Amino acid sequence: MSMHPLPKQRLWVWFLWLAGFYAVWLWLVAGKGLWSEAVAHWPMALAMAIGSYAAGSTPMGGGTVGFPVLVLLFELPASLGRDFSFAIQSIGMTSASIFILARRQPIAWAILQGAMLGALVGTPLGIFFIAPYIPELWIKLVFAVIWASFGLLHLYRLDEIAGHSGMTEFDENWDFRLGLWLGFLSGATVAAVTGVGIDMVVYSALVLLCRADLKIAIPTSVLIMAYTSVLGVAVKFLSGQGLQGGVFENWLAAAPVVALGAPLGVFIVAKIGRKPTLLVVATLCVGQFIWTLYAERNLLGIAGMLFAIIAVLACLAGFEKLRRWGSELVGEQPPPQQLPSGTAVLSELKER
Description:
By secondary structure, the protein is mainly alpha-helical. It has one domain. The chain has helices at residues 11-31, 35-40, 42-57, 63-73, 78-102, 109-129, 136-162, 172-194, 198-209, 214-238, 247-272, 275-295, 297-330, 342-351. Helix 4 (63-73) runs antiparallel to helix 5, helix 9 packs parallel to helix 13 and helix 12 (275-295) runs antiparallel to helix 13 (297-330). The chain is globular, with a radius of gyration of 22 Å. This is Probable membrane transporter protein. Residues 332-352 are annotated as: Disordered.
């Protein structure tokens, strides 16, 4: 039996990136005298030690932890949480992406390329024309609802999702168009509003619709979130918007942690499996939803909390619809049978 050699890893590329990043960071804290700022924001570095591991080992960006820590725990504006998510993922998710590419891990390239092109258009449109008009409370709710539904999906479908092997490739052009629409719509909405989420959308399509192995779906989701985060930061700076006050100080403390933490998540999860980490993170996603409803109970009222719960159920219904569509496309279950026409019934009776 012939054995195919494994693709040669090029980890020196990742080490070169790390050296460049830490050189810039040391120049900032030592050369520019910002060490006291970094030390003063050590709680964010501690939080992102967990967040960066999740970023590299799950389809949820580091902002999934950074956003609720800043907004719910530190009670800072949701728009600051969004900008911090973009900024910190530009380091952590980029570091994890370079590590993934250097290790030659399998990627769903057609969908990824389509999503990158879609995000290139959708994310700036969302930053300019959608995000500025979303109230702070609604930014919190959008984040809370989407991640709660994603967490619940994994709590009751994890065995099935983790059981996929390989990937259903319908057609490269079809995959590219799917990625294009996913990147455009999620870049313009959830990513532009919360700073995270495009990775979750692409991942969901891969595991539910394409029946992709987690070893393919998660690295692909990491790459699209890294790309969108860098794009988001670039758009904000080039347009003159800049980032919210307080983002840089928290970034300065957390960046050296996530540069190593996210790739560490990629490495460790390959040894221990993805299910335990996904279960923990899924539980945290549901927990932050409950926390958000409790923290904002006075503003939301009973009606607002019910609306949020209904929104979670609606997202779950969307996930299930995607799953059923994927089953039909690969022939796992036949489409619903249509009732026979009246003519067909009469013909059958005559034959009898």
